[in-house]
Amino acid sequence: MVAEKGILFILSGPSGVGKGTVRKRLFEESTELQYSISMTTRQKRPGEVDGVDYFYKTNEEFERLIGQNQLLEHAKYVNNYYGTPRKYVEETLEKGLDVFLEIEVQGALQVKENFPQGVFIFLFPPSLVELKNRIVNRGTESQELVLNRLKEARKEIEMMDAYDYVVVNDNVDHAVAKVKAIIQSEHLKRVRVAKQYKKILEDEIH
């Protein structure tokens, strides 16, 4: 049988919707997924390993990669670059492994432009009230910042049309089960399996 290539899955959604929680639970239950390792120019922290936590680069190296279109997405936070390396993702997919990327909405839209064959999943809050409660309950942001995040979330929800699937995160277990079902159904799509079955038919005829 022809080896099936892996699929890039992108989980995205507004800040505070619980992307990290869903991704962690999913990885506890799914051993065959590969987490997309990001690239950064920030200093390595004690205990971090290059190629495990991040791929560490200098500013010059990172900017060269941007110029060569070697990043599926990138952004700058507090004077440090962060991004998703195209080469790592493509090499992992070639091995037949699925790659999973958890990212903010702006980053996901960049990935869509650079890698449209990815599968884009939008994690949706049960309501804006619930989203506000989650952000407030973190206890890390001022009232002004909470309002800014909610305004941003409203804008991000309007970008939902760019995604293939929408999963409401009303319950982590339910959300994870839906994401797993999406992964399974993508592997069963006719366009993905057709190549394998055509090869089987050719082998049987010859």
Automatic annotation (TrEMBL):
Provide the residue positions that the database annotates as binding ATP.
Answer: 13-20
- EC number(s) recorded for this UniProt protein: 2.7.4.8
Q: Which Pfam families match?
A: Guanylate_kin
Q: Give the UniProt keywords, A-Z.
A: ATP-binding, Cytoplasm, Kinase, Nucleotide-binding, Transferase
- Give the top-rank taxon of the lineage listed in the UniProt record for this protein: Bacteria
Subcellular location(s) per record? Cytoplasm
Please give the SMART domains that the UniProt record associates with this protein: GuKc
Keyword Transmembrane helix on entry? no
Instruction: Name the PROSITE patterns for this protein.
Output: GUANYLATE_KINASE_1, GUANYLATE_KINASE_2
- UniProt keyword Nucleotide-binding present: yes
Q: What class of enzyme is it?
A: transferase
**Residues in Guanylate kinase-like domain copies:** 6-184
Task: Give one GO term, molecular function aspect.
Answer: ATP binding
Q: Name one GO cellular component term.
A: cytosol
The reaction(s) this protein catalyses: GMP + ATP = GDP + ADP
Family listed = Belongs to the guanylate kinase family.
For this protein, the record's NCBIfam families field holds: guanyl_kin
* Physiological role: Essential for recycling GMP and indirectly, cGMP.
- Name of the molecule in the record: Guanylate kinase
Protein's organism: Oceanobacillus zhaokaii
